[in-house]
Amino acid sequence: MKREVYWHLPGFCSFRYLNQILINLMDKYPEKFREGYKIGSVYGTFPGAIWNGGRAVFGIANKGDMEKIIRAYNSKKVPVRFTWTNCLLEEKHLSDTYCNLIMKLAANGMNQVLVNKKILEDYIRKEYPMYKIISSTTKRILDTNVLMEEVKKDYYLIVLDYDLNHDEKILSMLEPYAGKIEILVNEICVPRCKTRLEHYRNQSQAQLEFDATLPFRCPHNTKNRNFSECKKRPAFISNEEIEKYIDRGFVNFKIAGRGLSQEFVKDSYLYFLVNDQDREYIRDKIDKTLQELTSQFRQMKK
Description:
By secondary structure, the chain is an alpha/beta fold. Helices cover 40% and strands 12% of the residues. It is built from eleven helices and eight strands. Strand 1, helix 1 and strand 2 (37-44) form a beta-alpha-beta unit.
C-alpha cells in the first residue's frame, strides 16, 4: 500500500455536483483511481462573501443551502476550505455578518481556511480556533528567506507559489517540512507573471465592491485555457513527476480550477486521479450523472 496522498479540489460550491460525483465514484470504484489518493479538501467560497479572494464570486447563498453543501462534503469526511484571501481587507470588514455566519455554520473542527492577510488571520485564530489555517499561494512568496520563515509559522499547510514547483534548490530546502507543503500542479498562468499580484488586488476590490465589471487588462487573457494547453506550462507537474515528489515526502497537491470551465476541472481530475486505463470509464460515469442531474433540474423548473 502506497502512502496516502491528499488532493485539494476547486469550487466546493461552483463545482459541487462534479466534486460530489467524483467523491462518490472514488468510494464506489477505488480500484479505478490511483492507489493511496484521497480528497484532502474542497476549496472555494459561497458567492458574495467579501472575505473571498483570488477569484471574485458574486451572488448569495441562503443558510439552508450552505448547511446542505457543507454537510454533503463533511459527511464524506472531506473538509471544506474557505478561500479567505481578499488582500484588501480592513478591520471594518471583520464584522461582516455573512462571512461570520459561514464560519459559524462550518465550525465543527473539520474545516479549513486559506489566508493571506494578517488582520483576518488573527481574527479567525481568536474567534474560530477550531479551523485549520493555511497560508495561501496568493501571498506570492518567492524569496527563499521569507518562504522558510513562513514554513516555520503555525500553519497547517503552506501552498507553494507555482513558480517554485520545479526549483530544485527550494524543494531540497523544503524536504524536512514536506508534509506541510501543498503544491499547485496545474496552474494556467504564465511563468513569473508580473501582473499576478495586481490581478489579485483587482479581484479583491471587485469582491468588496460587488462589481463584476471592474476592469483588469491581463496581457495573457487571450491564451487558450484548456487542459491540453495547461500541460505545456513550465509549472505543470506530470503524473510521472508527482511520483518523485511523493518519494521526497510531498503528499499534498492542489488542483486549480476556480474561474475556469467545468470541462477543464473534469479533465484535470481524470488526468491526476484516475488510472490511465480507466479514464474513459470514469469520464462516462461523470458525464452521465451530470446529464441526469441537468435533466432533473429542468423538470423541476417546468
